[in-house]
Predict the structure.
Amino acid sequence: MKLGLDDVVAAETILSHVDGEAGRLIIRGHDLEALAGRVPYEEAVAMLWDGLVPSSGSDLRALIGAARVRAFARFAPMASHLSGLTPVEGMRLLLASLPDTEKDHAALAVGAAAVAAAMAVRGARGFSPVAPDPSAGHAADLLRMLRDAPADEGEAAALDTYLVTVIDHGLNASTFTARIVASTEAGLLSSVVAGLCALKGPLHGGAPGPVLDMLDAIGGADKAEAWLDDAIGRGERLMGFGHRVYRVRDPRADVLKAAAARLKGRNNRVAFAEEVEWAALKALAKHKPGRRLDTNVEFYTALLLEALGIPREGFTPLFAAGRTAGWAAHAIEQERTGRIIRPQSRYVGPWPAEAA
Ligand code: CMC
């Protein structure tokens, strides 16, 4: 038995494939690099959902835009409940309020996730929500709802690149969770909420905020090597490094690094981050020889989202907003198998005393 189910195959999927040895991510027959930065998020969603989600053949940009409006109408009265919650908790609260019986539930989930992410990030800081514009592209509208200022073309393209990059990624912890919930026929929106709950932990989707905390603590490139050496020496895990499946560099890291480097502005710390990354890889090779630890998606996620002016506590909600399309597709795929996921545990506790 493997505690972390390493290498256990628990589902068949047509959605995505992660090749951990080659550092390759295939999404519905396309390499990540052929999609991210080349198609808007809605087009990637349509491709991912093709033949699986009933609405995938329709105009998804319009359907998801309408879903943002529908979700905003439901969520706006709850805005006052968001202060005192972290953004990811606020997002969980909002999404959990959606009934599983809603029509076009997959498109609603995607629209609602963006609205909930933006509203929860603003609400946690005491700002009022910004209403969606259904005619705008999903990424541009998400940025506008977050910052209450229009996104320029380069910024919208960068967020599109990010959302497409994280749209799906094999049977990661949150996707497996979503599939387990779907296998009980609990419903698609419940599956998405369950996925969010699994994503929020620092070992999965909660890492990018702490990546920036680490860069802040390091302070300058000249201090990186000593700082990282100390941290690993104390047994700490470096956020943004290591992966259960990738034994080489996570291909998403390079896609996001290139997108972040293209963004101009005072928030852009990519050059500094590159020096920290180099020092981190050196320190990991020294302290964990033979472990094959490399950069994962979260490292440059942090740099990209920071350059877009998004506060670090909003990074996990944005990850969830992108991944919702994947969770929804996996939930439908799992439901179609008609089989509940129900593994076994091995009992290692005491046995009752035999009756005399
Ligand atoms: N920093 C330092 N040491 C590490 C790291 C790290 N980031 N990651 C793994 N190790 C060590 C680990 O301590 C272990 O060493 P030892 O055998 O001496 O105890 C060895 O490398 C093997 O690690 P593991 O525990 O078998 O790795 P895992 O597959 O259980 O964990 C992980 C994968 C992603 C949870 C882990 O690498 C980690 O905690 N990384 C930091 C958090 C992070 O960046 N998370 C985002 C993951 S990518 C987004 C996603 O797809 O979810």
User: Anything to note?
Assistant: Residues 4, 169, 172, 203-205, 207, 232, 237-244, 288, 291, 293, 296-298 surround carboxymethyl coenzyme *A (CB under 6 Å). The mean pLDDT is 95. Residues 10-205+312-337 form a domain with the Citrate Synthase; domain 1 fold (CATH 1.10.580.10). Strands lie at 16-19, 24-27, 30-31.
